[in-house]
Amino acid sequence: MRLMKKTSSKNAFEELCFLASKEKWCWNLYCTTCGHMDFMYGFKELIKLKSPEDDNWIVHVRNTYQKELGPAPRRFSKSSKTIMHKICAEANLFEIFKQCQKPDWLGYLGLVLNDMQDDSESFIELSKSWASQLKNMLPEDSTFNKRLNIIIENNVFLTINDLENYENAMPFQINGHMNL
After folding, report:
1. Would you say residue 144 lies in a domain?
2. CB under 8 Å to 122, separation ≥6 — which residues?
3. Residue 147 lies in a domain
4. Which domain holds residue 130?
5. For residue 62, is it within any domain?
6. What is the per-residue pLDDT across 74-110, written as a single tens digit (0 to 9) for each?
7. Is 50 a member of any domain?
8. Residue 16 DSSP SS3
9. Beta strand residue intervals within the chain, DSSP E
10. How many domains, in total, are found in the chain?
11. How far apart are CA 144 and CA 163, in angstroms?
């Protein structure tokens, strides 16, 4: 199978998050109705270096893209995960935060952490990138910064539990946006 080159200059994971928020994709990790299939197929397409901004992007909520894209991915190969790690590590989390539903944006990140976790250097780099960005979105005196520093400095993985703790550590929000 030939991989198509990404035609957009924007980060494809950011664009996936914007689309998911607009279309209200299910991000429930344990959903027994859809199994967050839109995301699973979306990840499959990102790994092929496609972006929701591309003319040939077909993954949309409740669409019939399954016929064209084949069986639903439930697990991803190590090489596929490495591609996703690199795409996601370059995503701007503040842009995702600003443009996506709250708290859904953290759920989107959680799906990546859950479905793409492995013991690779690329997953450590993803964890460091996201921990650094999350830290920049918290007040300097936040107690959660200690955990983020551990991730950044000690090659520790960012986890779904970290995202939950991050949400609890976020400063007061007005109309769904942080009061920075």
Report:
1. yes
2. 81, 82, 85, 86, 89
3. yes
4. 12-175
5. yes
6. 899 999 999 999 999 999 999 999 999 999 999 999 9
7. yes
8. helix
9. 173-174, 177-178
10. 1
11. 10
